[in-house]
Structures are given as C-alpha cells and as structure tokens.
Amino acid sequence: MKIILPIAKKEFRQIVRDPRTLGVLVFIPIFLLLMFGYAISLDVKHISLEVVDCSHTAASRSLVRKLSATEYFDIAGYADSTDTADYILESGEAECILVIPVDYHRQITRGGTAELQVLIDGSNSNIGATAMGYIQRIIQDVSVQILKGKRGMETGGGVELRSRVWFNPELRSPVFLIPGLISLILMVTAVISTAMSIVREKEQGTMEQLIVAPINPLQLVIGKTIPYTILSLVIAVMILMAGSIFFNIEIQGSFGLLMLVSFIFLLGCLGLGVLISTIADSQQVAFMLATIITLLPTFILSGFIFPIKNMPVPIQAVTYIIPARYYLVALRGIMLKGTGIAPFLDDVAALLLFAVLTMTVSAFRMKKGRLA
Amino acid sequence: MNIVKYFLSKEFSQLRRDKKMLPIVFIAPVIQLLLLGYAANLDVELIPIAVIDHDVSYESRQLTDDFIQSGYFDLTAQSRDPRKIDEMIDRGEIVIALVIPSGFQRDLKRGESPTVQAIVDGADANTATIALNYADIIVQKYSAALTLSNLRAVSPGELNMPIEVKPRVWYNPELKSRNFMVPGILALLLMVMTMLLTSLAIVKEKEQGTLEHLNVTPIKPIQLILGKLVPFSLIGMLDVLLVLAASKLLFNLVPNGSILLLIFLSAIFLLTTLGLGLLVSTVSRTQQQAMMSAVFFVMLPMIFLSGFAFPIENMPKIIQYMTYALPLRYYFVIIRGIFLKGAGLAVLWDEALMLLLFGILVLGFSILRFKKRV
Fold this sequence. Notes:
The complex is a heterodimer of chains A (about 375) and B (about 375).
Chain A (H helix, E strand, L loop, with lengths): L3 H14 L1 H21 L7 E7 L4 H11 L4 E7 L5 H7 L4 E5 L3 H7 L3 E8 L3 H27 L8 E7 L6 H32 L1 H7 L4 H31 L7 H25 L3 H19 L11 H7 L3 H15 L7 H23 L5
Parallel strand pairs in A: 1-2, 1-3
Antiparallel strand pairs in A: 3-4
Helix pairs in contact in A: 1-9, 2-7, 2-9, 7-9, 7-10, 7-11, 7-13, 9-10, 10-13, 10-14, 13-14
Chain B lengths: L1 H16 L3 H19 L7 E7 L4 H12 L3 E7 L3 H8 L5 E5 L3 H6 L5 E7 L3 H30 L8 E8 L6 H32 L1 H7 L4 H31 L7 H25 L3 H19 L11 H6 L4 H15 L3 H29 L1
Parallel strand pairs in B: 1-2, 1-3
Antiparallel strand pairs in B: 3-4
Helix pairs in contact in B: 1-9, 2-7, 2-9, 7-9, 7-10, 7-11, 7-13, 9-10, 10-11, 10-13, 10-14, 13-14
C-alpha cells in the first residue's frame, strides 16, 4: 500500500497536468452522449417518396394525400413517367416511387382492382422494409374504406389492435441507445488510457527506472490503474446524470448495484488495457490494438445496436468474449427495467471472470519481465 | 526529390522493422470485416411471441395462425394466464405478447370490432417497432379479409379489393441488411486504419524528440509530410484491395458498378482521412492526446453521424447540416452506390467533388499549420 499510493498519486498528477487529455476524457463523453442521444435513432420516418400519378384524378390525389399526411412519407417530387425511376433511386433523390396507373379511378369505381406499383430502394434494408410495410398498411386501409363506403357499411367486422409498450412507452431510441453508449465510452476510455499510460513509460525509457526501483510489477500496475478507475467511475456517473437531465432517463433500479456492476466491468477493461501494454512496445501499437479490440467490436458485437439473436451462431459465440455484451444486459436491466441482480447474475459472473482473467494473465506476463 | 527518397526509405524500413505493426495493419481489417460483417445485422427474424388466448375459438386460432404463418413470429408460449407475460418479458424470453380477449368470436359474429392487445418490450426500440409494425399489418390483413367476406355475405356478387399494391424492391431484393452493412464496414475500417496510422505520424517524432533532429536537416516540412504520407497511403490502398477481396471471398459481395471507379474514389477518400489524421497529429503534443482526439473527435462522430446505421434524415436539422462536414458521409454514398446500385460517376460526381475539396482543404491546412509550428 505504501508503494502503490505514491505511484497512483504520481499518475494522478500526470493526468491533471495534462488538462487537454483530462478534458477529452471527462467532457467528450458527455458531449458525445448529448450529440448521439439527440441525433441518432433507428426509427424510419420521413421516407422520401416520388409520385408518378398517371391517373390525374381527385381519387389519386386523395390517395397521395393519405400517404403524405403521415410522418412516414415526405413527397420528394412528382414525375410524369417511370422513365426517370432509375436515376431517381440511383441518386437517392427518393427512396421509393409510387406509380398510380391510368385506370386507377375507373377500376376503383367500377369494382375492379387498381394495381399500384411501388418501387423501393432496398439498399438500406431497414428503410426499405419499413417503407414497404407502411405503404401496404396505409393503402390497405384506404382500400377497406373505399369498400365500406361503396357498400354503405358503417363499421364493424374489423379487428382493432391496441398496443402497449413496456419499459419504453414512446419507443424512444435514446432510452435504448444510452446504456450502449455508456458501455462503449467506458470501454474505450478505460482500455485506451491504461494501455497508453503504461506503454508510454516503456517508450520513454522511464519504465526501466521504475523497474530498478523497489516496486514489483503488480504494485506498479495497481498504482497506475487506480487513477483511471476513479476517473472512469466519475465519467460513468456524469454520463448517467446527463442521461437523466437531458433525456429524462431515470435509473429504475438500484444506483448502488449499477455502480458495483460498472466497477466490475471497469476492472476487466483496465485488465485488458494492461494486457495490451504487455504486448505492445510502442504507443502506436498499443493504440492500434486497443482501438481495434474495443471500438468497432463494442459498437457492433455487444448488442448495442445489432441484436445478438440475429447473428449467425459462430458469431454469437464470439460475442461471449465481448465484455460489453454482459455489461449491457445488466445496464439495460437496471436502468430500464428496474430489475435486481437476479436475472443477470450470470452476466455479472461473466464480467467478474473477465476481470480476473485479464488481470491474472497480464500479471503473469509481467512477472516474466515483459514490461521492460 | 532525393531528400524525399531518402526519407521515404527511412520510413519504410521503420515500418518493416515494426514486427507488430504490419500484421495489425493487414490482418486486423480482414478479421474485423469477417466478424462485423456477419454481426451487423438489423434484420429482425422470428420475433418470439406469446399468445394469451382468452377466447379459444376458431377465430382466435385463425388470428394466431396468421401470426405464425407470416414467418415473422415464433410462437414461444401459449397460455391463458396473463401473469406469465410479466415474467417472460422480464426474462427476455418474448418480445411481444398478443392478448385475445374472451368474447372475440362473439363480437366478430355480431359485427362489432373487438380489440386485441399487443404488449411489447420496448427496451430494444428497434425490434419493438418492427414487431409492432408486423403485428399491425397482420391484424389489418385479417381484418380486411373479414370485412371482405362479411360484405360478400351481405351483398352477393363479384367483389374485389379496390386497390392492390405490387411492391418491387430494387438493388437488394431480399432486403438483407448485410448487403447494406458490409460496404459500410469496409468504409469504417478504411477510415479507422488510415487515421490511426497518420494521427501518430508527426506527434511520435515530436514526443521522442526526433522531430528536432529532422528540423535541423535540410528537409522541408512539405517533404517531411509527403514522406510520412506516402507509406500510409500505400498501406491504405492495399487495405482497400485486401478488404474488397475479403468481401468477395467471405460474403460473395462484389460491387455492381465499376471496381476501378471505387478504387479511384477510395483514393480520394483516403486524402481526407490522411489529412484529418495529420491534422490531429500536428495539433497534439503527446501521442496519447493524438489518439484520444482521433478517436473521440473524429472517429466516433463519423461512425455515428455519417449514416452508417442511423439514417441522417431522421436527425435534427442542425445535426443534419453538421453531417455535411463529415467526409465519411460522402464516401458511404459512394461505396454503397457502387456496390449496391451500380452507380457511376454521373450520379456520384458531387460526392466525389466534395471529398476531393475536403481532402485538399484538410491536407493543405495541416501542412500550413505544421510549417508555422516548425
């Protein structure tokens, strides 16, 4: 303890003396949270729709109005024929094209079936599928209305669907994404900053001075990681506060539990950082490794955005080694569902295992003198 | 020119000697493409559903069948006990529960409109929205078919649905998100790799004190930067080819458009990432600063705000304007346009022009900044 504390103090002083890095570490996460919280969502709305109305009747115009009155479709423009369809979809001027046939009015008044054509740019499958669904729903609705109107029926016979959404009643994306952002930001900061702080001593040659000092590697590493643990926890709390202030995301479950789980997760991240520093000799390699291991995998493989259930089985197996995966389950559980520790006990156990594993492996590697 | 040549050979031998760097630069992108390409999948297939059927009638079974037949839902549980819903949603076993009220059949026969309830786990907003959409469409179809048959019963004769929709999906007919995501990941990898390399280029010499050595040599700042950038652009271009080959081998995805055009425009895109990396490198004092800035100021915003997974048109207007300053935004349009739509320069010229302008601007600015500093 007597040895660890001075190292921690020294490291802490170094962090404080570099206000730019400190600022980046503390304020950027909040800034990112705000930015992303307001900016990103997977909701598909305002799909741009080009209309090719060959019918030119009141009936066809009313159909178009039905579509444009929803928040799902914005009319991008009108075209006279489908000749330009290629260009319109290719250049992204519109994401779908609705073609109303010449005989639209005649068919719907005489009891025939008017065939509408919809061309959809499927390149973004999410938008494509949603656009198709919305169009089908709205047009079927119009269709049934016409049918009922013709037969002079008022209501009846239909089934209504009333939906209730739990945990996130307005289906706001921030509610779903913020736990993911927290885990991403924590992971990236913790791993990169620890890996860098150790490798820097190696690169600058000060590591050798530390090694000849009466400090054993374990003490050195613990001392070096303490400031970053504290810093990361502070960042976590700040992000949570920002989430509650700006997005009204109150933590449904226990705050203490949340902190405990975050601490365990951070231990693992720091362990990973140290492990990377035992492999890398230069800051550049350390940074490359840390970024490649944390940034994109946490973004894509943790269930942050892409549901793990949808991944092929071998990739699902890979996600088990992504610590953010477990943290995210726990975080969403505590923040959104207000559950206790019971439903994700195994996730916490996995985090603990991850922490123990990375710490032991890196301690082992260090004993073999890899630090120098 | 001679000076540049010597400097280049020094840079290359430094790169070659770095036994850990080279594998990272060439192997990491391929592994990442493999993992991420398979993982980045927004398609929601088989949503687990529980049906709480209080009616147990022919009609309620028919509606349940419609849900199963649709191919979107997987019937995980069937029960008459509504308390089970709580439990199953909490444990994440189901995403949606459909509750059919008792008297469902009776109401339908009387011509009234019974209400079925869908309870959705909203924690994953994306899956929840999709589940709700599907549920809506299925119930509506069921309802429309019912209306039609009721009408036929009341007034016999030929009766058709007045409007029919024929959707046709272009470019990605099966609407697989992989086809959309893999080109996107290609772009992300390219950005991350080249920016990581360049962001440290100058600051490393600064931190190690060797920049001062270089300054006293007759090498000019622009020559120095040129010497630094040439190896990285080569690595970047090699990465482009490597990752293109990997996407063919791993995902059988090849550009529908011209590969040459893609390579050419990728080179222009590299100008911007190299320029941004260099800028970060010249404004930072330590490698740590440079890396933090590269990750937090440049890469993260680009990943989230350029339209990789989150549609730009849904962002607030102010942020939409900000995205015009992100080169990755244009490159996404280009790479997806060429890969999926087979677009040519006639369609993509404005994006290409923006990238070129951006690249020249950033590179020029960082060279100027570097001159002043030195």
